[in-house]
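Please study the protein below:
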Amino acid sequence: HVYIGTMGGEIFAFNRNGELIVSSGQDSFCNLPGEIISTPCYDNGTLYVGTKSGYLCALDCLKAENVAPARDDLEGGIVASLLIEGDFLFVATIGGRLYCLFKDTLETHWVYPEFSTLSLAPFLASPVSGHDIVIAVTGEGQMLALNYQGDLLWEQHISESVRATPLIVQQFVCVYTQSGCLHVFELKTGKKKTSENVINAYLETSPACNGSYIYIGATNEYFYAQNYMTGNLREPCFPVKNEHCPIQISFFLLQKGYPR
């Protein structure tokens, strides 16, 4: 099935034939309190959805029934996409807190910062994970690396706003600022490797990587391929009209690294 969340809090579901699946007495699959801005995630028959009002639920993907008690006590709303890794569900909120929940029960494993009085700037970009490390970046450029037990491994401050989702490539984490600057750090240590400001455009979408190149769309309606180690751009840059949409790499769409 394909699931689509709306600003009105509705979730629409379609089967492979494009037919709308509705719940009894409703015009949609289900209706949640608050705007659905973040991308839901799916795991083993369960659909996880968060709303801008801070409501979080785990739904049976066929019956639209809660498989665990919903949460409405997460500080701040949810606009960043949810992340599932192993037994955990990571939720970054605009209240400036990163939650690690047990995905089966939605009970809290840990939250960072631990106390609400220490809350950070809003999380607008989605968290990512790799090599047993979760990376989260606030809208003001504060980047955190934590292990799955909630221990802070390292922290970096980027002096610009960040809207684009970070990208983990091998042993590095790559972060684009909203002004188009690429920052590359060692994943394990947080040591800064490079900083290249060669994309003269605002970046708000999620990048993808193939080989040594990162692909990302910009608000100037161009699509870029940038070498994450050298900062060099691959020419030509392609004009596109979906600059706010995430880039998804499918290898059959790439020939010698160029989108076709």
